[in-house]
Amino acid sequence: MRRLTVSLLALAVLTAPAFAQGRRQAPHQPTAAELQKKKDAAEIERRYKATIKATPAAASKNNDPWALVRGIDGKSGQK
Predict the structure, then answer these.
(1) What pTM does this model have?
(2) What angle do CA 9, 13, 15 make, to 5 degrees?
(3) In degrees rounded to 5, what are phi and psi of residue 72?
């Protein structure tokens, strides 16, 4: 009986790594909620790009918030 138990235990230990790899599963099919989430994300991205295109070029110009402190000519500003 002891011999049978030891052999079954050895068989279980040797076959465990093979079962750890598992079976190959079919590719995941997206659910309706996932598809809706992707559509919503695409819509948000489309709206974002449209907003960026509609922004006037002057708004994207580099503004200097410290211009009054530094002064226009680069020397010290208001004292």
Answers:
(1) 0.42
(2) 115
(3) -75, -40
What three-state secondary structure class fits 79? coil
Burial of 23 (0-12, 13-18, 19+ CB in 10 A): exposed
Answer whether 65's CB lies under 8 Å from 56's CB: no
* pLDDT tens-place values along the chain, 79 residues long: 999 999 988 888 877 776 666 667 777 888 999 999 999 999 999 999 999 898 876 555 667 778 778 766 656 555 5
DSSP track, 2-58? HHHHHHHHHHHHHHHHHHHH-PPPPPPPPPHHHHHHHHHHHHHHHHHHHHHHHS-GG
